[in-house]
Amino acid sequence: MPQASTQDITFNGVPAVSLTTPAGAEAIILLHGAHLVSWKPAGGEERIYLSEQAVYDNGAAIRGGVPICFPQFGKTGPLPQHGFVRNMQWSKVLARGGDDFAMAVFRITDTPETRAIWPHPFAAEFSISITGARLDMEFEVENTGDASLSFTAALHTYMRVKEAEEVQLEGLRGQQYRDLLTGTEHTETGTFVSIDRETTRLYRETANPLLLREDRQALGINTENMPDTVVWNPWEQTCAAIGDLPDNAFRRFLCVEAGAITKPVELEASQSWWGRQSLVAM
Fold this sequence. Notes:
By secondary structure, this protein is mostly beta strands. It is 4% helix and 47% strand.
């Protein structure tokens, strides 16, 4: 019987960890940003989009995969867009496999550089676990200081698709959302969300599981303790203006991001918080 494996590898010149389950599912996570850049369910195709023009220079954000947004989502505060942990070097603290799974855990703590722009001691861990058809990602933050802190966070997941115009995202009907392009409030009335233009929506309190359908395959999307869902596709004009994306890349992905954004997380000293996004290939 095949065995699970975990290996330290180099991916585009960057230290990384590869995971393989006995059933053949695979994942690759960079130490830079604890950034998941690949996930293939057992017997299936790649389900995560990574830009062919992504930049792997030290300190740069990597386009695609699953960037971790912390301690600020987007431009909702004074920090750099999406915070700073996606641009930092993390440490691998655990990697192991079992009869039907493989997993790895990565950790980061505050530094003099982070405290210069966000004056809070913290520790964060990102855990990745894969089975035959399932990917679980859990982000945990601990307040290691003596005073309270507040943050927003998200897993900025790029779902790989064959044609963005043909996908259907189910499970958001009746949800309130803010169109971040226009600043207007809306209620989702469709049985599914389809993409035919630039889209940046922040759906609030999305408790229902989501289903991303395309052709003859689907992807179940479940979250825990991350009540907001961001749906993003830059479409043609904005995509062409993004230097680390091919001009036609907007057709190849849809970001469905799990987050704690609308209501910032408040942590007292010694408290911790976690949030999870799970993907199930169907």
